[in-house]
Design goal:
Radius of gyration: 17 Å
Number of domains: 1
Strand order of the largest sheet: 1-3-2-4-5
Strand content: 15-25%
Structural class: alpha/beta
Largest sheet: 5 strands, mixed
Length: about 160
């Protein structure tokens, strides 16, 4: 009997229209009972019952290796804060569209939501005490409107 290769795993098998997920992202989904969230179902994710929700934007783990650290730490962070949050992972091929919705400009980022409202975000990998403080501050906020989408501005070429 031959050992199955990692690409034989259905969650990691690359489809022509979607890049394969890293095993640590699969672990995050398994540990938290989370799911992928794409642009066409982010409204449904926001509106699901259950109070708090977290969206994880990891980006390409080759370009942003700290994203894998965040994927490992996120369940521990939620547990330490006593947060019972639904977890959504935004896949790389959907990140740009969903990131605009929450004005996410840095990878990795975690966006916190509550009752269909926006709480805030924490970007990058942080020291544990910084993570706890920043995430607790975000979770203490009242839900509000999403931030305005970021708009890229380019300077006009100099005329002299």
């Amino acid at each position: 009997m031959t050992e199955p290769s990692p690409s034989d795993h259905p969650a990691r098998a690359a489809r022509p229209d979607r890049p394969a997920r890293h095993p640590l992202i699969d672990r995050l989904l398994a540990v938290t009972g989370g799911r992928e969230v794409r642009a066409d179902d982010v409204d449904a994710f926001e509106q699901e019952e259950g109070g708090d929700a977290v969206l994880f934007f990891g980006g390409d783990p080759v370009r942003f290796p700290e994203a894998l650290d965040v994927a490992v730490v996120l369940p521990e962070l939620l547990a330490a804060l006593g947060a019972r949050a639904r977890v959504g992972v935004v896949p790389r091929d959907a990140e740009d569209a969903v990131a605009r919705r929450y004005a996410v400009q840095r990878w990795p980022s975690i966006v916190f939501l509550r009752d269909s409202g926006y709480l805030g975000s924490v970007s990058g990998m942080q020291d544990w005490d910084v993570y706890l403080r920043e995430a607790a501050d975000v979770l203490a906020r009242a839900p509000g409107r999403r931030p305005a989408p970021a708009i890229a501005i380019q300077a006009a070429p100099a005329c002299h």
